[in-house]
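COMPLEX REQUEST
Ligand: NAI
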Amino acid sequence: MSLLFDGRVVLVTGAGGGLGKEYALAFAERGASVVVNDLGADTKGGGKSSAAADKVVEEIRAKGGKAVANYDSVEEGEKLVQAALDAFGRIDIVVNNAGILRDRSFVRTSDLDWDLIQRVHLRGSFLVTRAAWNHMKNQKYGRIIMTASAAGIYGNFGQANYSAAKLGLLGLSNTLAIEGRKYNIHCNTIAPVAGSRLTETVMPPDLVAALKPEYVAPMVLWLCHEQCQENGGLFEVGAGWIGKLRWERTQGCITRQKNQPMTPEVVRDQWDKVCDFTDSTKPTSIQESLQSVVSVLSKVESGQDITASSTSAPVASPNPGTNPTAAVGQNLPPTTFTFSHTQCILYALGVGMSTKDPDHLRFLYEGHPDFGCLPTFGVIPSQAAMMEGGLSSLPGLNIDLTQVLHGEQYLELYKPLPTSGQLTSKATVADILDKGSGAVILLDVKTYHGDELLCFNQFSVFVVGAGGFGGKRTSEKAKPHVPPPQRAPDAVLVDSTTNDQAALYRLSGDWNPLHIDPSFAAMGGFQAPILHGLCSFGFAARHVLKHFAGNDPSKFKAIKVRFVKPVMPGQSLQTEMWKEGSRVHIQCKVKETGALVLSGGYVDLHETAEKSPGGAQAALESELLFTEISRRIRDSGGDLVKKVNAIFGWEITKDGETVGEWTIDLKNGSGALHRGAYGGKCDVTYTVSDEDFVEIVRGKLNAQKAFFSGKLKIRGNVMLGQKLEVILKDPARL
Ligand code: NAI
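STATUS: Structure written out below.
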């Protein structure tokens, strides 16, 4: 179907020649009534003549089209629009095209050179558009074109005045696009290239002839057609080619730390990172832009400091041994691990399984009908990357491996482990943190069975003496440990290790002499060889598996622990467990001494989730509040929609997992509350735990504080928070 403009009234400014004339002819040819405006000035804005506009009107009429001429300057915006109303009774489309040039090198630009250019391009487009705006708004239809220029987008020698005005038009258009959206008024900006009297002074004649205005006009017609939903766009167009432009932003970099002044030196040191477009983003709204800036406040507050973005290049490195710039992102050589049921059984014995417990047989006897591999065996194939000394061979990691301590471990299984086969592990240095006395290396290891990703490990390795290189202290790549709930544990299991526990466990592949050789242990400051941290980890994991998952490895999803203190072979391990949804928080103590050896740990189980006694999930406290909010919306009879005009999404979490979703629609109809996944788009979405939501609504937790401390996460238009008060106010009644 052809794109027609029957019944539409179009005002094209500066339509006496060049591009404007082409637009006027094209619109008229497709049925529009056209106001051909042109002051008939020379290219510098001097002189005045009605001839230019008249000739175009004649040409249109000769072809059977409808057109009238207008000779006012765009600086008299009202008059131009009035001409449309007088002749055709309405105004649907405004193409701001009129323009002049007064090119000068910057220093020679006079006040007049500057002012005239701003007046014709920027102020003229403003005045004409403002005069048309209310007509468009009332008829709920309008299409506006602003004419920018590559000189504005990229700069051009000798065109300071013109570039400023042209990019000013883009800013104007960006905001009109937003203000006009709900009235079906769309505003777009073009940067055209065409041969015309403006360009014949700067382009060779052949090019002026070849770059015909008719290769630009169809784009303008499309943008102005009612079918076109484009709004707020910027396009370069010429020679029959059209391209769209948008903003691109680097990940950027936080350049200050909590409670410390921001300094120019840090800015200097982070400059490469500030400007690094790797993994860049493309913000499309001020909300999106602002949101990322505002979120920095809470990031700094929570200790996420300098170099907090994903790309590397942190501060200069006074410690020659550790250079994160060189090391982060480096891959270690892949390792292979071939195994049979022997290794699985050996591992199970290594982490304290025994035939004394009939439940253990399924992990100790390959002939058992349910024979399987303990989930935590998943650390074994991946540790080869560390054992084979790959770490110290990487650039930027010139470290002493005898100074390495295992700090934390995270393991996630994507499927139950096989009991034999060949696995390949690929390790990457995910990040390096500076803890002052040492460096923490985060090593991410993915283990594959054939092409299939089987499990993921994150080793967090503390290297004594490798810190102080001026790096960051935390990383968003780190799998965080989580403190247990503040109540007595739901279950406690105790198991003794044997005197040979370490000697047995090391046969699974951790050959570090620290766990067998007394003299080596003494060098490390220990009275005797110590148990492997990953052995205690295996004990704790199987305690959870036994108590909460009936020893079924397929229910195991992930585990995280932090290694706090050494355990001596022969001591007893006491695992304390708290069940919260599908997560079991764990910590481990040495029973004999009470010393905490594993802290901040958890095991995530797959959601076979035991239900609460009634069979349903434990009710959320937020539920009651949302019920009341729903009542308020109903009672308001649509008043809230008028006041607020926005859609708020809520994701209510427990233990970090979303357990409930609500959407408060105060934009459509007379308002509504939706429960569960919402098909539409929310203007803003809040993620908050059930408890914190209740505290916020009850006024016990300040929302702003909750945001800064990371308890409340906000996606979308942060500004809408103010409007939320209308629904949440008067908490006593909620
Ligand atoms: P042009 O000089 O052929 O057309 C501009 C028209 O605007 C002229 O007919 C002129 O009389 C009229 N005009 C000047 N001041 C006016 C005023 N105060 N009120 C009413 N009319 C006035 O130039 P061209 O190339 O067709 O330019 C059209 C638009 O495209 C301009 O805004 C120009 O800055 C822009 N542009 C053109 C490029 C090109 O390659 N031709 C490149 C980038 C931007």
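REMARKS: The chain has five domains: 9-245, 246-316, 318-474, 480-609, 614-728. Residues 307-318, 609-617 have pLDDT under 50 and may be disordered.
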